[in-house]
Amino acid sequence: MTTPIAPASRIAVITGASSGIGAATARHLAAAGYRVVLTARRKDRIEALAEEITTAGGKATAYPLDVTDRAAVDEFATAFKTIGVLVNNAGGALGLDPVESGDPEDWRRMYETNVLGTLHLTQALLPKLEASGDGTVVVVSSTAGHGTYEGGAGYAAAKHGAHVLAETLRLEIVGRPVRVIEIAPGLVKTDEFALTRFAGDEARAAKVYDGVPAPLTADDVADTITWAVTRPSHVNVDLLILRPRAQASNTKLHREV
Ligand code: 8X3
């Protein structure tokens, strides 16, 4: 069966679209025919990306948004009658500290962005997704949502939360015209993920990928998200775990050093 081309009127909202997986997903979904709405806190970044996509012949608009701000999310949702796709990508890791000494403030912020951010957007846009008659919610979780590793508890707890949100929502809305797709990437080398985790420490961030022959790229994940979203609407990719070949588990990573 061929991949259905999304009608130009289909809207895809992407959170965390200012960089990494979110920005790549915006480019890929626009190339697949979606009218993409880019959201993130950094207005300059999403405006530049919207301009880039438009110049390349796609349809894109930028809407500055903090997913943890519920009132702002509700206001954002009023801009739409229907949307086809919501990609909950905003989130990330803060720190790699043991449970014994982890900063509760980091844990709180990770829960707020990765879980409550996804909850806010999903609650606000679910009626619009349903109104489209064929909606898709994507939750970009992580392999950390399906297992843990030393130092990863705060992030793994938040990503387990995102996973549970996706799984529960799928149970609760079965029979309604909205799919819930969870994409769980492992080691992805992006400009900012590790840098954010280590509060801007470039040397420490670079070590995450040291000697790993080919970590996943943001494009690899965006390609997978786009593939899942563009399956015929009765096909629901519940959960897809995606790792580089060099990573056999959360704690088994091949390095050539
Ligand atoms: C990113 C994967 O291994 O850094 O979500 O937790 S990991």
Please give a structural write-up.
The chain is an alpha/beta fold and about 260 residues long. The protein has one domain (about 5-250): NAD(P)-binding Rossmann-like Domain (Rossmann fold, 3-Layer(aba) Sandwich), CATH 3.40.50. It is about 40% helix and about 20% strand. It has eight helices and eleven strands. It has helices at about 20-30, 45-55, 70-75, 105-130, 155-170, 195, 200-205, 220-230; strands spanning about 10-15, 35-40, 60-65, 85-90, 135-140, 180-185, 190, 215, 240, 245-250, 250-255. A seven-stranded parallel sheet has the order 3-2-1-4-5-6-9, sandwiched between helices. Strand 4, helix 4 (about 105-130) and strand 5 (about 135-140) form a beta-alpha-beta unit. Helix 1 (about 20-30) packs across helix 8, helix 3 (about 70-75) runs parallel beside helix 4 and helix 4 runs parallel beside helix 5. The longest helix has 28 residues, at about 105-130. It is globular. The chain binds 2-hydroxyethylsulfonic acid. 2-hydroxyethylsulfonic acid (8X3) binds near residues 152 and 187.
